[in-house]
Amino acid sequence: MAIVQKEKLTRDLSISLLLYTLPVLAIYLYFKLSNGVVSESHLTLPSFLEFTKPAFENIRTWGLIVFMLALGIIEFTAGLYDDEWTGEERKIDIICFLVPKLILPPVIAFFSLTILPNLIPNLENSLSWVPFWGGFFLIAVADDLTQYWYHRLHHQVPFLWRFHRTHHSAPYMGVAMLNRQNFIYTVFFSQIYLTATLTFLGLGLPALFVLVIKSIIVLGAHSSVAWDKPFYKYKVLHPIAWVLERLISTPATHHAHHADTSGDGVGHFKGNFGNMFFIWDVIFGTGLITRKFPESYGMKSYKQEEWYAQFLWPIFKSKKEGSALADGVLSIPLKPKPENVTPSPVYEQAQS
Predict the structure, then answer these.
(1) Burial category of 156 from C-beta neighbours within 10 Å (exposed 0-12, middle 13-18, buried 19 and up)
(2) pTM summary value
(3) Distance from the first to the final alpha carbon of the chain
(4) Could you confirm whether the keyword Zinc appears in this record (predicted)?
(5) Would you report the helix, strand and coil content of the chain in percent, each value rounded to 5?
(6) In this predicted model, what pLDDT tens digit does every residue of 304-344 receive, in sequence order?
(7) Do the beta carbons of residue 261 and residue 231 sit within 8 Å?
(8) Does residue 45 contact residue 205 with C-beta atoms inside 8 Å?
(9) Is the dihedral of CA 177, 72, 262, 341 positive or negative?
C-alpha cells in the first residue's frame, strides 16, 4: 500500500512539474514566433481590458471586504448557518479574519521590499516584457497549483494536519469561516511568497487580476449560497455545469471537502483540494463530483477547542480532554498493538 502511495505521489509530482512549465513554454514559443519582438507588456493592460483596471484595483483594496459582508448578510438573513455561529465559533472566525489582515501585510511587505531586493537585486521587473496573458497564465498556474499541494499535504501528513484542522472544525459553511485557519498555516502560505516574488519580477498587474478572480471563486465556493444549483437543475445548463465543476471550485465540490464524513458518497475531505481551479483534482484523481451537498460539516472528533488553541497551536494548547490540540498528544500516532484499538482522530481525518 505504501509503495502504491509513493508511486502515485511521484507520478503526481512529475505531472506538476510539467504543468508548471506549460506557461513558461507558451511564453517562450510566443517570443520565438514573434521573432523576439515584444508587441505588448504586462506593465500595461491590453486595450480591451483597460476599462476593467479601476474595478479590479478597487475590488482588491476594499471591494472584496464589501462583497464578503454583503454575502454574509444574505447568508444570515436566509438562516443558512442554522444558528450554529455562536460562542467560541464566532470568536474563532472573527479573530482568524482580523488578525492576519493586521499582521500579514507587514510580513509580505518586508519580504517584498527588503528580502527580495537583497536576494535578487538585479532582477526587479526583469519579466516586464512578458505579455499580459502570459503573466496571467503563469501566475494562475504557479499560485493555485502550489496552493493545491500545500492544502493536499496538510490533509495527508498527520503532523501538518493539525495546522489546517481549524479550517475544518467549523460545523457550517459560509463566508464567516472562510479565513478560519491556524495562524502558522496562514503565515507559511507558500503561494503568497511565490506571487510576491513574481510581482517583484514585474508581474504585478496580472497578479492583481489573478488574485481578484481567485478571491471571488474561493468566496463563492465556501459560501452557503449554493449558486451552482441552477446549473444542475435545468437540463439546458448541464453542459455548462459539466465544464464549470471540472474547471473551478464550486459550492457542491468544496462543500463536499468540508463534510464531516466520507461514507455517504457525497463527503470527500480526503480530496477536492482545489482552491481556484478544481482541474488539479481532476488531473491527479483526488476529485469527487456528485452535484450533491453534505448533510453536515466539520469533524466528528471536534471538541470545540478554545479559540487560542485553534488559532495559535502549538504555541498554546487546548485544555479539552481528548483534543488533538491538547498537551502531550503525539504528532504521528503510534501503531496500535491491540486489534480493536482505533487510530486517533487526527490520523483518521488526515489520512482517510
Answers:
(1) middle
(2) 0.86
(3) 14
(4) no
(5) 60, 0, 35
(6) 899 999 999 999 999 988 888 887 665 444 344 444 444 44
(7) no
(8) yes
(9) positive
